[in-house]
């Protein structure tokens, strides 16, 4: 039997996507004959943003053998319990989208029906008071979730805010330590095989040629292989998502970073504020159809309270997705595969799921078209559903989607878009009988929050980069 296995995997680009793929795939194919080479150009650089994550990132680096504390120390990270939305519904109003549950389901009926029924009976309460994650975040506190939660009231999850450059460096260290070969150099030409148009190799400015069987395009928005060489095509969603530019700037940090990302509505978009241990990341994502660049910049500068660390950078983007993420022998990952405004910090999570798909559908040199079809279909549905969560049009749960019902609930409640009807099985329940058990739930959440340490105390104890801190939390 002929051996058709992929022998040479070439990753193009050394941003977050490239080094995450290199670290994870090297580990996955450990000990086998696969050679992995990564080509990047320091002269071109990386996009340099992408600092807020969702909890799946923790599973990703744990698979690489890294603990939370190791990653937090290496990347100046802080804890993220969720996202606080400010001024989206009206001036002065805020709500938190936590990574976790709200309340306890009773008799198999989801909690929010009881919560609505109590409100309709004249006792409105804040949904956040039933969420430990949201309540800890609002109080500026942090503790690790209990390993064996005794009730859904104590279930919450957390993610990180990290320095994107330091995270890519960490991934590079893991990848290189495990045998990934790095080539520094600018790719000047992508060579195609005349017989089938597959990518044969990459010419570098140095004169070197890098050949491969399979190429992972992590070259950023331009899509050096997937688009510039293979002309795959891009489906723009600019009719659904108007934002197409961002000003990004880092500012000096303060003590007591909040354990959440702030996203604040602005005149033509929204502003992020991401706390790290040593600084903040800030940015204004806006629609160029509704505001001029210089006016957006002025709004951002006026809103950032601390001294800026450099001149703000303007980033252009086109919301949407590559029509085929896998085309011939090229798979696009990261910004090369598409981009949605970072309102829910989904890009890095999509890199993780992209890597999982590569592992699950890894081809041989015959490149069975069914594998690419499956990969492309899966990627399309996933990206469309993240898009829908961002524009919040639907309320249907699919097995494979990234955001679970409590996330949809958090956003609907925050926007005060609430159903009139409650589950008919509650028709026989006296609303007065709900008052006491729901008050008990709020009390249980309050008591845990009161005993939790401030976020800053947690960072000081475990996560200072140079500290020889105890690893009790690991
Ligand atoms: C404004 C903004 C805010 C964001 N915020 C978040 C967030 O909070 N959370 C989140 O999850 N994601 C966020 N993202 C997305 C996140 O930044 C990206 O998903 C992540 O950084 C991955 O980027 P990348 O590695 O695909 O591309 P890049 O960082 O652009 O890397 C491209 C690589 O390709 C190399 N390259 C390109 N051309 C060549 C060539 N000719 N020769 C050799 N090398 C080449 C470059 O040198 C570089 O190494 C944000 C994105 C934007 C634009």
TrEMBL record:
Pfam family, one: Trp_halogenase
Residues binding 7-chloro-L-tryptophan: 80
Binding site residues for FAD: 14-17, 335, 348
Signal peptide location: none
Annotated binding of L-tryptophan, by residue: 344
GO molecular-function term, one example from the UniProt record: nucleotide binding
Source domain of life: Bacteria
Keywords: FAD, Flavoprotein, Nucleotide-binding
Active site: 80
Protein name (database record): Tryptophan halogenase
Source organism (scientific name): Caulobacter vibrioides (Caulobacter crescentus)
């Amino acid at each position: 039997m002929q051996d058709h296995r992929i022998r040479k995997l070439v990753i193009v680009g050394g941003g977050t996507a490239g080094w995450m793929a290199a670290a994870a795939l090297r580990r996955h194919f450990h000990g086998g004959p696969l050679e992995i080479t990564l080509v990047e150009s320091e002269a071109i650089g990386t996009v340099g943003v992408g600092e807020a994550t969702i909890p799946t990132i923790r599973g990703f680096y744990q698979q690489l053998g890294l603990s939370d504390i190791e990653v937090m120390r290496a990347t100046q990270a802080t804890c993220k319990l969720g996202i606080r939305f400010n001024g989206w519904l009206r001036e002065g109003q805020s709500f938190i989208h936590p990574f976790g549950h709200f309340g306890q389901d009773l008799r198999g009926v989801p909690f929010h029906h009881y919560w609505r029924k109590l409100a309709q009976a004249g006792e409105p309460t804040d949904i956040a008071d039933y969420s430990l994650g949201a309540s800890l975040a609002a109080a500026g506190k942090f503790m690790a979730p209990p390993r064996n939660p005794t009730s859904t009231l104590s279930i919450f999850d957390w993610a990180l805010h990290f320095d994107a450059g330091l995270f890519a460096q960490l991934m590079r260290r893991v990848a290189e330590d495990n045998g990934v070969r790095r080539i520094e150099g600018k790719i000047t030409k992508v060579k195609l095989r005349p017989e089938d148009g597959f990518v044969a190799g990459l010419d570098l400015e140095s004169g070197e040629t890098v050949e491969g069987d399979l190429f992972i395009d992590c070259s950023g928005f331009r899509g050096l292989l997937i688009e510039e060489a293979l002309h795959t095509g891009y489906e723009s969603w600019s009719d659904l998502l108007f934002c197409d530019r961002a000003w990004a700037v880092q500012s000096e940090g303060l003590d007591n970073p909040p354990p959440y990302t702030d996203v604040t509505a602005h005149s033509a978009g929204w502003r992020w504020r991401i706390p790290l241990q040593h600084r903040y990341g800030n940015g204004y994502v806006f629609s160029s159809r509704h505001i001029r660049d210089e006016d957006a910049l002025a709004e951002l500068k006026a809103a950032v309270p601390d001294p800026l660390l450099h001149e703000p950078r303007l980033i252009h983007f086109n919301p949407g997705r590559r029509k085929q993420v896998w085309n011939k022998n090229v798979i696009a990952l990261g910004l090369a595969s598409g981009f949605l405004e970072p309102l829910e910090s989904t890009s890095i999570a999509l890199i993780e799921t992209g890597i999982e798909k590569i592992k699950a559908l890894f081809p041989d040199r015959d490149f069975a078209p069914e594998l690419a079809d499956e990969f492309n279909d899966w990627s399309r549905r996933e990206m469309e559903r993240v898009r829908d969560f961002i524009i919040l049009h639907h309320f249907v749960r699919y097995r494979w989607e990234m955001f679970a019902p409590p996330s949809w609930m958090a956003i609907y409640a925050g926007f005060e878009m609430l159903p009139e009807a409650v589950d008919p099985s509650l028709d026989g329940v006296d609303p007065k009988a709900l008052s006491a058990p729901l008050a008990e739930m709020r009390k249980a959440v309050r008591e845990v929050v009161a005993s939790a340490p401030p976020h800053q105390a947690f960072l000081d104890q475990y996560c200072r980069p140079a500290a020889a801190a105890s690893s009790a939390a690991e």
